[in-house]
Specification:
By secondary structure, this protein is an all-alpha fold. Helices cover 67% and strands 2% of the residues. The chain folds into two domains: 1-62, Arc Repressor Mutant, subunit A; 64-239, Orthogonal Bundle (Tetracycline Repressor, domain 2). A hairpin with a 2-residue loop joins β1 (181-182) and β2 (185-186). The chain starts with a helix and ends in a 13-residue tail after the last helix.
């Protein structure tokens, strides 16, 4: 190999080696969290499990926060992928079953990856703050977009604007206006309020199960969740008019 070719190839080889080492560190950190919980995560502990020095780890992650950001981003992306894949399994089904399938995908991922779910939604890690509008925020928005799509597919902006959300104060209406992107516009405030309420209901049930607060339901937890998500979807759609004067009906 000529000197010029070697010079060209070497950076690529270094990048591949760095990427492989970074991936190994991330996997080791996930394993550490699975064994000790997210609050026990430390660069020193991960380095020890890899048989390397913490100084060596600093070549890939300058501090714990940098590693946590990668772990949180990866967890959000995998959770979103699980939700999307679950919704896709019901692609040819009625809208309610697509939404329920997406919700059940969320629940399955959470109860299968308890410690990583706790990293996302458990007590905040001490002294950690996610980068403002960084990769963790973007990954979380992707998951939100999936539920937004499954919840409101087929409705026009006018229909969602006319949703029955009583008692929405002017201040909250203004705050909700730019909150969620919706094509070239933003989701109307009444629909945003419905989305946030549904998220609280869905997520709250999963959190209760993940943290063991509904263990008394035993093997029936999946059925209870399925029923609750079905009812949640139907309640939301009852609040959105199926047809407005001069507007073709587009209710799913």
């Amino acid at each position: 190999m000529s000197a010029d070719a070697h010079t060209t190839a070497s950076p690529t080889l270094r990048r591949r080696r760095r990427a492989a080492a970074t991936q190994e560190i991330v996997e080791a950190a996930e394993s550490y969290i699975a064994g000790h919980g997210p609050h026990a995560l430390s660069l020193r502990g991960v380095a020890r499990n890899l048989g390397m020095t913490v100084q060596g780890l600093y070549h890939y992650f300058p501090n714990r926060d940098a590693l946590v950001t990668v772990l949180v981003t990866k967890a959000y992306r995998e959770l979103a992928a699980a939700v999307s894949a679950a919704a896709d399994t019901a692609a040819d089904e009625p809208a309610v079953l697509r939404f329920v399938a997406a919700a059940e995908g969320y629940r399955r991922w959470a109860i299968t990856h308890v410690e990583r779910f706790q990293l996302l939604y458990g007590a905040p890690l001490p002294h950690y703050a996610a980068p403002h509008n960084g990769p963790t925020t973007q990954a979380m928005h992707r998951m939100c977009e999936i539920f937004q799509r499954e919840m409101f597919a087929g409705f026009t902006t006018a229909q969602m604007t006319a949703a029955d959300v009583r008692g929405l104060s002017p201040a909250l209406h203004t705050h909700l206006q730019p909150l969620f992107p919706h094509g070239s516009e933003t989701l109307p405030p009444p629909a945003s309020a419905l989305l946030l309420g549904a998220w609280g209901h869905l997520h709250g049930m999963v959190v209760l199960e993940v943290f063991g607060h509904t263990s008394f339901i035993g093997e029936h937890q999946a059925e209870i969740f399925h029923r609750a998500m079905f009812d949640l979807f139907e309640d939301i759609h009852r609040r959105i008019p199926a047809q407005l004067t001069g507007t073709p009906a587009t209710h799913p």
